[in-house]
Amino acid sequence: RNTLTGKKEPFIPMQARHVRWYTCGPTVYDSSHVGHARTYLSFDIMRRVMTDYFHYNVLYQINTTDIDDKIILRARQNELMRQLEQDKSVDFDKLVVLAKEALEEAKAKSDQKKEEIAKAIEEATQNKDSRAKTEQEGLLQNHLVKRKNLDNDEAKIMELCGSSSAADKDARANLLVAAKSVVAEKLDREKGHLITDHSVFNAHARQYEREFMEDMTALGIREPDVLTRVTEYVPQIIAFVETIIEKGLAYKSNGSVYLSLDSFQDAGHNYRKLNPAGPGGAATSAAEMAEGEGALGGGGSSEKRNPSDFALWKASKPGEPAWDSPFGPGRPGWHIECSVVAGDILGERIDIHSGGEDLKFPHHDNELAQSEACFGCQQWVNYFTHTGHLHIAGLKMSKSLKNFITIRQALEHNTARQLRIMFLLQAWDQPMNYSDQTIDDARSKEATFKSFFREVGALVRDDYLAQEVGWQMAENDHKLADAYLSARQSVHESLLDNFNTKDAMSALLRVINEANTYLRLPQVRPSVLLLRAIATYVTQILKVFGVIDGEDDFGFGSGSGDANAANGGGEQYIETMVSFRESIRNAALEAAKGGDSKAAIQSVLQICDALRDEVLPKVGVRLEDRPTGTMWNLEDPEVMARELAEKAAKEKEAQISKLEKQLIAREKEYEKIKNSMVKPEDLFRTSEFKEWDESGVPTTLANGDPVSGGQMKKKKKAIDKQSKAFKDLMAKSGNNPQELLSATQKEVDGIKEKLSSLSL
Fold first, then answer.
1. Pick from 46, 72, 299, 619: most CB atoms within 10 A?
2. Which of 93, 46, 4, 30 is nearest to 545 (CA)?
3. Of 458, 488, 465, which Cα lies nearest the Cα of 622?
4. Sheet containing 250-253, strands listed edge to edge, beginning at the edge strand earlier in sequence
């Protein structure tokens, strides 16, 4: 789907089968999260399909934004926090005062922001401007999340301020961590202008650029053919801006340079192609303009000819890096970088331009405008692709909302393959939810592929040439062959249709399901070569998707490609078999001494199960017991260890759940026994009453008033019920209820002890 036009269009490169493809890279101010993984994994999959399946010649470029408002702010704040941490004159007591002041300022700023949004919603409602109202309501929702985060920070800060003391050696360090977000903002407001060393900003960007590239490698994402940085293109950016000024489409103002949207439109160009908002962007909202100018926006609309004009070059203020230019000391605007670096590497026309959904406006629309202004064309990019937002708990994953999971955190609990499969199962250009359900679905699909590959691997290892090699299953063989051919056709059509990996994966899983059904037919005589062809094809497509590396004909491989080599040769297998033999021998000798053949059989079976479940996985061997015999395969020991750990965790979770239910039941039983032990005639012999009849029904209250007839009836029913419970208890306990109560208490204590040990 070409997001420039909003519809599916035939892909026609400008030059034969050569594709010039530019993707906006990260703004390297912090660690990358799973939302970034969604974007770059999706484009990696699309790029692989283009090169490895459709065999286009792709030149793929990514740019790193290494100077930007977010980087400047975060680098300054981190430097100021570092200085504060090293400033021993600011002891714990002074830090408490600073943290409380910063907290109050942050709350006041938050309150003011909420009032501004509420006012904007009210105005939009009065003006019947549904677009503005929806936009502001979204901002309010995000603001409320941010305020909740601030309230949580306040609770932590106040707890540390109140419960810690200067005598606690960790008190100062703990408070610095808890109050970092609010204190850093306060320090930046007061001292940010003093940070002028370029190396502070450069070191910050280099750190997170390296981390980003390492994350991409960990996810199995191919490196770009070309990687560029903004800071290495400042001379070219200045020349680019000068060209636009010379064409009369940009103007200088107070040391900054702005693209003139009025002049741009008068020259026959259109603005906001990706995210239309009226002629020439006339309906661009204040919130959108603020997003376009960044957190350190320039002089505002007062130095612009048109409020929607955007900065090509920003005059640097104190505390911001600056480069000399004909316009004065400054730095590149956010959008100009991509136009310049892509134009330099890929030329004045680009086939494909990619990025996240949130870059449509202002970033990509502004890129289009300034590129068309400089190059004198009407269409700089032919096809845009934008990945949908990644949501978590109903909100877009975002650093500003603090609801993100870093890529490294995600990889602690999931493999890169599982994350890739998760995204393959979604439409790349639609929003998706990141949840336990989506990742569990990916794991389930991975397990389906693995199981099928193992089964076919076992069949291929057998000497199938010693058997009849034709189709022995009549219509079942034909049905499976038809499913195979249908899967190939479906995959091809799906990939032609907007890189529809979701349907392509479904086609692969359908043919595997057909194969599994085929293999479980009574007296099955499988066509090994057909099954191998299916497994090989599935592997080929998964290789195209980046799910599988390696040179094996089919299957996920053993990790290193050689399980023997990965495990140090055959020594570990020999040690395993020697240990197994010794265990079996000792069990047999022990049984022989006692003459207990049943115990010997049970012991041998337990040892065999332990070999399968505990010993062989450590050396990369998987055994699966089937009615037709035991199937074996070589696997990556780390993968098997992770599977065993996950299985153990689930079993432990199930065990805890079971014990918790047992505990509730036994505690109820304990209370029931305890209550039933009261003799019926003593049930109401309490200080509330003074006189009772022969069956224990109270007749007179403690103050001398008679008990009403209605109350006496109720008490009589309760005594009759207690009488039955007491008799049942006596029968159940053999007239020894105290012994039964003690035994039940012992059961309760035993369950609690088991739960405690499992929790540890």
1. 72
2. 46
3. 458
4. 250-253, 256-259, 310-315, 330-332
